[in-house]
Protein backbone atom coordinates (compact mmCIF):
# COMPACT_ATOMS: atom_id res chain seq x y z
CA UNK A 1 0.00 0.00 0.00
CA UNK A 2 1.58 3.31 -1.03
CA UNK A 3 1.91 6.10 1.48
CA UNK A 4 0.29 9.36 0.46
CA UNK A 5 2.24 12.40 1.61
CA UNK A 6 0.69 15.86 1.45
CA UNK A 7 2.41 18.14 -1.04
CA UNK A 8 0.49 21.32 -0.35
CA UNK A 9 1.73 22.13 3.16
CA UNK A 10 1.70 25.78 4.09
CA UNK A 11 4.59 27.33 6.03
CA UNK A 12 2.93 26.92 9.44
CA UNK A 13 2.14 23.22 8.84
CA UNK A 14 5.67 22.58 7.56
CA UNK A 15 7.18 24.33 10.60
CA UNK A 16 4.96 22.32 12.95
CA UNK A 17 5.98 19.08 11.22
CA UNK A 18 9.68 19.98 11.43
CA UNK A 19 9.35 20.82 15.13
CA UNK A 20 7.50 17.58 15.85
CA UNK A 21 10.15 15.59 13.98
CA UNK A 22 12.98 17.39 15.85
CA UNK A 23 11.31 16.73 19.20
CA UNK A 24 10.77 13.05 18.36
CA UNK A 25 14.38 12.71 17.17
CA UNK A 26 15.63 14.39 20.38
CA UNK A 27 13.57 12.04 22.58
CA UNK A 28 14.95 8.99 20.74
CA UNK A 29 18.52 10.35 20.97
CA UNK A 30 18.19 11.03 24.69
CA UNK A 31 16.69 7.60 25.30
CA UNK A 32 19.47 5.95 23.29
CA UNK A 33 16.92 4.10 21.16
CA UNK A 34 18.88 4.38 17.90
CA UNK A 35 22.36 3.61 19.21
CA UNK A 36 23.32 0.19 17.75
CA UNK A 37 26.48 0.00 19.89
CA UNK A 38 24.71 0.51 23.21
CA UNK A 39 25.45 -2.16 25.76
CA UNK A 40 25.50 -2.49 29.54
CA UNK A 41 29.04 -1.08 29.89
CA UNK A 42 28.14 1.97 27.82
CA UNK A 43 24.93 2.51 29.75
CA UNK A 44 26.76 2.26 33.08
CA UNK A 45 29.36 4.82 31.96
CA UNK A 46 26.76 7.25 30.53
CA UNK A 47 25.90 10.05 32.98
CA UNK A 48 22.27 10.41 33.94
CA UNK A 49 20.15 13.06 32.28
CA UNK A 50 19.64 14.71 35.69
CA UNK A 51 23.41 15.00 36.21
CA UNK A 52 23.85 16.52 32.75
CA UNK A 53 21.00 19.01 33.17
CA UNK A 54 22.24 20.10 36.62
CA UNK A 55 25.79 20.59 35.35
CA UNK A 56 27.31 17.85 37.55
CA UNK A 57 28.30 15.82 34.46
CA UNK A 58 29.09 16.54 30.84
CA UNK A 59 27.82 14.58 27.87
CA UNK A 60 30.64 12.80 26.07
CA UNK A 61 31.07 13.40 22.37
CA UNK A 62 28.94 15.75 20.30
CA UNK A 63 26.01 17.19 22.22
CA UNK A 64 22.58 16.17 20.98
CA UNK A 65 20.51 19.14 19.84
CA UNK A 66 17.66 17.72 21.95
CA UNK A 67 19.86 17.70 25.04
CA UNK A 68 20.97 21.25 24.29
CA UNK A 69 17.34 22.37 24.12
CA UNK A 70 16.52 20.58 27.38
CA UNK A 71 19.51 22.23 29.09
CA UNK A 72 18.37 25.61 27.82
CA UNK A 73 14.81 24.98 29.04
CA UNK A 74 16.09 24.09 32.53
CA UNK A 75 18.39 27.14 32.59
CA UNK A 76 15.55 29.45 31.50
CA UNK A 77 13.29 28.05 34.23
CA UNK A 78 15.73 29.06 36.96
CA UNK A 79 16.91 32.30 35.31
CA UNK A 80 17.16 35.75 36.86
CA UNK A 81 18.04 37.31 33.49
CA UNK A 82 18.26 36.16 29.87
CA UNK A 83 19.93 37.68 26.82
CA UNK A 84 18.58 35.78 23.80
CA UNK A 85 21.30 36.89 21.36
CA UNK A 86 23.35 39.54 19.62
CA UNK A 87 23.28 42.49 21.93
CA UNK A 88 27.04 42.09 22.23
CA UNK A 89 29.36 45.03 21.76
CA UNK A 90 33.02 44.40 20.98
CA UNK A 91 35.47 47.18 21.70
CA UNK A 92 39.23 46.75 21.46
CA UNK A 93 39.13 43.08 22.39
CA UNK A 94 36.64 43.56 25.22
CA UNK A 95 33.07 42.26 25.17
CA UNK A 96 30.23 43.91 27.05
CA UNK A 97 26.70 42.60 27.25
CA UNK A 98 23.62 43.75 29.10
CA UNK A 99 21.58 40.84 30.41
CA UNK A 100 18.46 42.05 32.16
CA UNK A 101 19.68 44.27 35.03
CA UNK A 102 23.19 42.78 34.88
CA UNK A 103 26.26 43.90 32.97
CA UNK A 104 28.61 41.14 31.76
CA UNK A 105 32.12 42.14 30.64
CA UNK A 106 35.05 40.19 29.28
CA UNK A 107 38.16 42.25 29.93
CA UNK A 108 41.24 41.15 28.03
CA UNK A 109 44.46 41.62 30.01
CA UNK A 110 47.62 40.35 28.27
CA UNK A 111 47.71 36.79 29.64
CA UNK A 112 44.34 36.58 31.39
CA UNK A 113 40.74 37.43 30.53
CA UNK A 114 38.47 38.55 33.35
CA UNK A 115 34.75 37.82 33.30
CA UNK A 116 32.93 40.36 35.46
CA UNK A 117 29.23 40.59 36.25
CA UNK A 118 27.75 43.60 38.03
CA UNK A 119 24.18 44.47 38.88
CA UNK A 120 22.02 46.92 40.79
CA UNK A 121 21.67 44.73 43.89
CA UNK A 122 24.90 43.13 45.16
CA UNK A 123 22.88 40.64 47.24
CA UNK A 124 21.11 39.28 44.15
CA UNK A 125 24.04 38.76 41.79
CA UNK A 126 23.84 35.49 39.80
CA UNK A 127 25.50 32.28 40.94
CA UNK A 128 25.28 30.33 37.66
CA UNK A 129 26.03 31.33 34.06
CA UNK A 130 24.73 29.23 31.19
CA UNK A 131 25.52 30.13 27.59
CA UNK A 132 24.32 28.37 24.44
CA UNK A 133 25.26 28.63 20.78
CA UNK A 134 22.70 26.29 19.24
CA UNK A 135 24.01 26.48 15.67
CA UNK A 136 27.39 25.13 16.87
CA UNK A 137 25.82 22.79 19.49
CA UNK A 138 27.89 24.39 22.23
CA UNK A 139 26.99 24.97 25.86
CA UNK A 140 28.83 26.12 28.94
CA UNK A 141 27.63 26.00 32.52
CA UNK A 142 29.72 27.87 35.08
CA UNK A 143 29.16 28.09 38.80
CA UNK A 144 30.22 31.64 39.55
CA UNK A 145 32.31 32.57 42.59
CA UNK A 146 30.94 34.71 45.42
CA UNK A 147 30.74 38.41 44.69
CA UNK A 148 33.45 40.68 45.99
CA UNK A 149 31.81 43.98 46.78
CA UNK A 150 29.36 44.54 43.95
CA UNK A 151 31.09 42.39 41.32
CA UNK A 152 31.35 38.71 40.47
CA UNK A 153 34.79 38.18 38.92
CA UNK A 154 36.30 35.12 37.32
CA UNK A 155 39.73 34.85 35.67
CA UNK A 156 39.94 32.80 32.47
CA UNK A 157 43.16 31.50 30.93
CA UNK A 158 42.81 32.04 27.16
CA UNK A 159 45.45 29.36 26.56
CA UNK A 160 43.44 26.61 28.26
CA UNK A 161 40.73 24.73 26.37
CA UNK A 162 38.07 25.69 28.94
CA UNK A 163 39.08 29.37 28.92
CA UNK A 164 39.09 29.56 25.11
CA UNK A 165 35.69 27.88 24.97
CA UNK A 166 34.11 30.26 27.51
CA UNK A 167 35.62 33.36 25.87
CA UNK A 168 34.54 32.22 22.40
CA UNK A 169 30.96 31.37 23.42
CA UNK A 170 30.43 34.56 25.44
CA UNK A 171 31.79 36.64 22.56
CA UNK A 172 29.62 34.91 19.96
CA UNK A 173 26.85 37.23 18.74
CA UNK A 174 24.32 34.37 18.53
CA UNK A 175 24.99 33.14 22.08
CA UNK A 176 22.06 33.01 24.46
CA UNK A 177 23.29 33.88 27.95
CA UNK A 178 21.26 32.95 31.00
CA UNK A 179 22.13 34.13 34.52
CA UNK A 180 20.57 32.48 37.55
Main features:
5 helices; 180 residues; four-stranded antiparallel β-sheet; alpha+beta; 2 domains; single chain
Can you walk me through this structure?
This protein is an alpha+beta fold and 180 residues long. The protein has two domains: 67 residues, no CATH class; 99 residues. Helices cover 32% and strands 28% of the residues. It is built from five helices and nine strands. The strands form two sheets. Strands 2-3-4-5-8 form a five-stranded antiparallel β-sheet, covered by helices on one side. A four-stranded antiparallel β-sheet has the order 1-9-6-7, sandwiched between helices. A hairpin with a 2-residue loop joins β2 and β3. The protein starts with 10 loop residues before the first helix and ends with a strand.
Shape: elongated
Helix-residue proportion: 25-40%
Number of helical stretches of at least 4 residues: 5
Uncertain regions spanning at least 5 consecutive residues: 86-92
- The share of residues in extended strands comes to 25-35%
Order of helices and strands: HHHHEEEEEEEEHE
Based on helices, strands and strand pairing, what is the structural class? alpha+beta
Q: Any idea what the radius of gyration is?
A: 20 Å
Tell me the number of structural domains: 2
Average pLDDT, rounded to a whole number, is 77
How many β-strands, per DSSP?
9
Largest sheet: 5 strands, antiparallel
- What order do the strands of the largest sheet run in, or round the barrel if closed? 2-3-4-5-8
Q: Between the first and last Cα atoms, what is the distance in angstroms?
A: 54 Å
